Amino acid sequence: xxxxxxxxxxxxxxxxxxxxxxxxxxxxxxxxxxxxxxxxxxxxxxxxxxxxxxxxxxxxxxxxxxxxxxxxxxxxxxxxxxxxxxxxxxxxxxxxxxxxxxxxxxxxxxxxxxxxxxxxxxxxxxxxxxxxxxxxxxxxxxxxxxxxxxxxxxxxxxxxxxxxxxxxxxxxxxxxxxxxxxxxxxxxxxxxxxxxxxxxxxxxxxxxxxxxxxxxxxxxxxxxxxxxxxxxxxxxxxxxxxxxxxxxxxxxxxxxxxxxxxxxxxxxxxxxxxxxxxxxxxxxxxxxxxxxxxxxxxxxxxxxxxxxxxxxxxxxxxxxxxxxxxx
Length: 327
Prior knowledge:
Largest sheet: 3 strands, antiparallel
Strand order of the largest sheet: 3-2-5
Shape: rod-shaped
Number of strands: 8
Distance between the termini: 201 Å
Radius of gyration: 59 Å
Structural class: alpha+beta
């Protein structure tokens, strides 16, 4: 009698304890009574009738992520592998639909992703796929929302996380990008060289202009100095020809002195004998004198004017001339 009571008491205790159960945060529990849906229990301590009620299953209410890899072909016949990440969760108010209407939600989502991606990508070229991947993700999300809401699932976001072309296409794209960058670098280098050349040419032109201006000013000052030297020599009784010859000889000796001042100079000025300066002076004076004489003779010849003689009628023909009045 005592043993049976203890057994009944222990069984009663276990049955009572099995009536209580806990539901974790961000999850729900489906309760079935005699195999039929009875209720949905949310987080916290819950109670069920032993033997009559049972826990049919737990539903996760957290945001889940499913990565789907699709192999498809672009408009320009390039095969690519695209990775689409779908973030979704069970709608708390539709736990019944999520548990009973759809047995394999991951497979269903994967099928819809395949359908949308393989419908959108073949419309685009490879470069456009990279540029418009956000549009593809939006199209996938829109299609999934329309389909999965019926089953109690909410699509939070869809992301195209990776686009992987064929290895040969990838290598070709890398070569194209490298060639474009080399072309751009060459254009920048050419533009830089052009700017340097133009700047150098402008600097040289400005330098030559200033140099020419300096030479002109120098020659102008030299000419002014020569004029003053000639005037000074004229004042002491030396005419212009002799003064010019003397200045030239003076410059000749200045040149010799400048050449001799450079110890490393290999330049030789001929003639360079002491008699050369005197000969040069005499020759120039003689040349100026001869030139003046020739000029005077040409002036005298130009002053002589030859008067033409009047034409005289020949004898014996005077009678042949008949006045117009007699005819």
